């Protein structure tokens, strides 16, 4: 049975050996779980994340977006600043992220080098093709065919 529980609870239950037998964890929780002597990493999805450019989407419902354009613009501005200063603030960003997610700075630096932030949509066609091949989509999709393609960041 699959049940959604917070990462911290899943790690504690994995460590206790008797409450759950496995878990799907997000980064950086997987790093904490790997530190446990009684846990074995079956698979991680770093290769999938890199190949298909799986990341974060910033989404707001229409009402919030229309009523709070200043907040949405501020978020995008900060995102742009982080992207623009990623390399020059690398050490500072690594320390901040390692502290925030309570993981080793070397792991964070490795991730930062291989998966720098971007505001571009990348990997969409590869991911859509994978979803079609696995029958999760009923027909093939291409980013260029989306009705709002001209409004997407490039």
What does this structure look like?
By secondary structure, the chain is an all-alpha fold. The protein has 3 domains: 1-44, no CATH class; 58-117, no CATH class; 120-154, no CATH class. It contains 8 helices and no strands. The chain has helices spanning 7-16, 29-34, 46-52, 62-67, 69-84, 90-101, 105-114, 124-133. The termini are far apart. The relative contact order is 0.10.
Summarize the structure.
This protein has 154 residues and is mainly α.
Descriptors:
3 domains, 154 residues, mainly alpha, 8 helices, 0% strand
Which secondary structure elements does this structure contain, and how are they paired or packed?
Blueprint lengths: L6 H10 L12 H6 L11 H7 L9 H6 L1 H16 L5 H12 L3 H10 L9 H10 L21
Class from helix and strand fractions: mainly alpha
Mean pLDDT: 81
List low-pLDDT spans. Answer: none
Order of helices and strands: HHHHHHHH
Which of globular, elongated, flat, extended, rod-shaped describes the shape?
globular
Radius of gyration computed on alpha carbons = 19 Å
> How large a portion of the residues is in β-strands, by DSSP E?
under 5%
> How would you characterize the largest beta sheet?
none
Number of domains: 3
State the end-to-end CA separation: 41 Å
State the helical fraction.
40-55%
Number of beta strands: 0
DSSP helical segment count: 8
Q: Kindly report the oligomeric state of this protein.
A: single chain
């Amino acid at each position: 049975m699959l049940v959604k529980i917070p990462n911290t609870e899943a790690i504690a239950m994995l460590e206790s050996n008797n409450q759950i037998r496995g878990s799907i964890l997000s980064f950086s929780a997987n790093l904490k779980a790997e530190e446990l002597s009684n846990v074995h990493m079956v698979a991680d999805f770093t290769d999938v994340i890199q190949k298909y450019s799986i990341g974060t989407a910033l989404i707001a419902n229409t009402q919030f977006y229309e009523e709070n354009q200043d907040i949405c613009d501020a978020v995008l501005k900060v995102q742009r600043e982080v992207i623009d200063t990623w390399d020059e603030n690398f050490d500072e960003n690594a320390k901040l992220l390692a502290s925030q997610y309570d993981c080793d700075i070397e792991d964070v630096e490795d991730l930062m080098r291989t998966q720098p932030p971007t505001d571009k949509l990348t990997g969409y066609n590869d991911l859509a093709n994978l979803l079609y091949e696995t029958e999760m989509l009923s027909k093939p999709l291409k980013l260029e065919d989306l009705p709002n393609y001209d409004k997407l960041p490039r």
